[in-house]
């Protein structure tokens, strides 16, 4: 994930999904986009990060933004 951090300046908080994708992986990564006080009001984002078999980033995109205190009720 070092390439992702270098490219975006965002530190991953959690990996919430992973699936094989050709010769690499497609990962879902949650990051803090905007830290606020209290931390429960921070703005989070989920990114899809595609990496090759060596773990180098091929592509990434932000899928959604949400408040840290948000919960999915589905």
Structure report:
This protein has 74 residues and is mainly beta. 9% of the residues lie in helices and 55% in strands. The protein has one domain: Nuclear Transport Factor 2, Chain: A, CATH 3.10.450. Strand 2 and strand 3 form a beta hairpin. It is elongated and about 40 Å long.
Name the features:
74 residues; Nuclear Transport Factor 2, Chain: A; 1 helix
Helical fraction equals under 10%
Give the topology string: H per helix, E per strand: HEEEE
Q: Which CATH architecture is right?
A: Roll
Residues in β-strands, percent: over 45%
Give the total of domains. Answer: 1
- Net shape: elongated
- Any idea of the CATH class? Alpha Beta
**DSSP E strands, number:** 4
> What spatial order of strands do you see in the largest sheet?
1-2-3-4
Which whole number gives the mean pLDDT?
Answer: 93
Structural class: mainly beta
Distance between the termini: 29 Å
Rg: 13 Å
Major sheet: size, sense and barrel closure?
4 strands, antiparallel
CATH topology-level fold name: Nuclear Transport Factor 2, Chain: A
Number of H- or I-type helical stretches? 1
Low-confidence parts, pLDDT < 50 over ≥5 residues? none
